[in-house]
């Protein structure tokens, strides 16, 4: 178990819900536990509409400005909203997206986090492209990104993987349970890529708080870490969607 982004959680639990293997309350609980204390927006209504239209799977995407891998064709404002959030879920067969935005609310001593879901239109994804996703290739690219970043961090100076010094095992407040029947190989890559993603994000946070040696060195380190985040995002979203396709019966586990 690990603490995945909201959209990764919704992809697996939403797919389970579409197969009538989970109810509304359990989906809302597993998706938001540890990350949000309140939920707003047409999340359940949109899932019901997708199921009514014949959808059997919910995909995850982790886009950022300039990195829109896995995103469907959609209006520019939709892509901008998903990129700003850094995540979304997609109805791959019938089209459509759900994008979460989290914000804090309340007063000192009584604060919470609101997860606001917004529904958008988008085109369906080509099923044959999705089904061709290869876990081995995703894992290889992630390993290469890690090797390249490690080499860069050593060459530019400063401590390699400063985030690892502070967080040997990136700590999370809640660990997300997965639905029964999730593909073990896909789950393994999901967990590994999420840990690497957290490690790189920790490193970026430390660079933002204070340069490793000087501004030039810190900029080079941040660029290397952003490359790791990009590769980890691709691996996490890809592995999630492989797990989803197995849950939905699109491909073997």
Description:
This protein has nine helices and five strands; from the N terminus they run H-H-E-H-E-H-E-E-E-H-H-H-H-H. With 253 residues, the protein is of the alpha+beta class. It folds into two domains: 6-130, no CATH class; 135-233, no CATH class. The chain has a five-stranded mixed beta sheet, sandwiched between helices. A hairpin with a 6-residue loop joins strand 3 and strand 4 (97-107). It is globular. Residues 162-174 have low confidence and may be disordered.
How is the secondary structure organized here?
Elements lengths: L5 H13 L5 H9 L5 E3 L2 H10 L6 E3 L14 H10 L2 E3 L6 E11 L2 E11 L6 H5 L3 H22 L5 H5 L17 H26 L5 H34 L5
Parallel strand pairs: 1-5
Antiparallel strand pairs: 2-3, 3-4, 4-5
The tally of structural domains comes to: 2
Query: Whole-number average pLDDT?
Result: 89
How far apart, in Å, are the first and last alpha carbons?
A: 18 Å
Class derived from helix and strand content:
alpha+beta
For the sheet with most strands, the description reads: 5 strands, mixed
Give the total of beta strands: 5
């Amino acid at each position: 178990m690990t603490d995945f982004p909201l959209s990764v959680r919704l992809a697996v639990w939403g797919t389970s819900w579409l197969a009538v293997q989970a109810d509304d309350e359990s989906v809302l609980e597993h998706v938001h536990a540890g990350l949000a204390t309140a939920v707003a927006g047409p999340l359940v209504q949109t899932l019901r509409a997708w199921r009514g239209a014949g959808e059997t799977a919910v995909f995850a995407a982790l886009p950022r400005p300039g990195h829109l891998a896995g995103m469907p064709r959609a209006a520019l404002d939709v892509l901008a909203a998903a990129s700003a959030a850094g995540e979304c879920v997609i109805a791959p067969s019938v089209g459509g997206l759900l994008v979460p935005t989290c914000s804090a609310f309340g007063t000192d001593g009584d604060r919470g986090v609101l997860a606001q879901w917004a529904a958008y239109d988008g085109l369906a994804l080509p099923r044959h492209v999705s089904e061709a996703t290869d876990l081995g290739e995703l894992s290889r690219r992630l390993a290469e990104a890690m090797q390249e970043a490690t080499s860069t961090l050593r060459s530019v100076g400063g401590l390699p993987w400063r985030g690892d010094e502070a967080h040997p095992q990136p700590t999370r407040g809640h660990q997300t349970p997965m639905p029964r029947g999730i593909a073990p190989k896909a789950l393994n890559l999901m967990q590994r890529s999420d840990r690497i993603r957290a490690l790189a994000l920790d490193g970026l946070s430390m660079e933002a708080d204070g340069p490793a040696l000087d501004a030039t060195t810190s900029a080079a380190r941040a660029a290397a870490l952003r490359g790791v985040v990009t590769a980890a995002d691709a691996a996490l979203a890809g592995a999630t969607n492989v797990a989803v396709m197995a849950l939905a019966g699109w491909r073997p586990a």
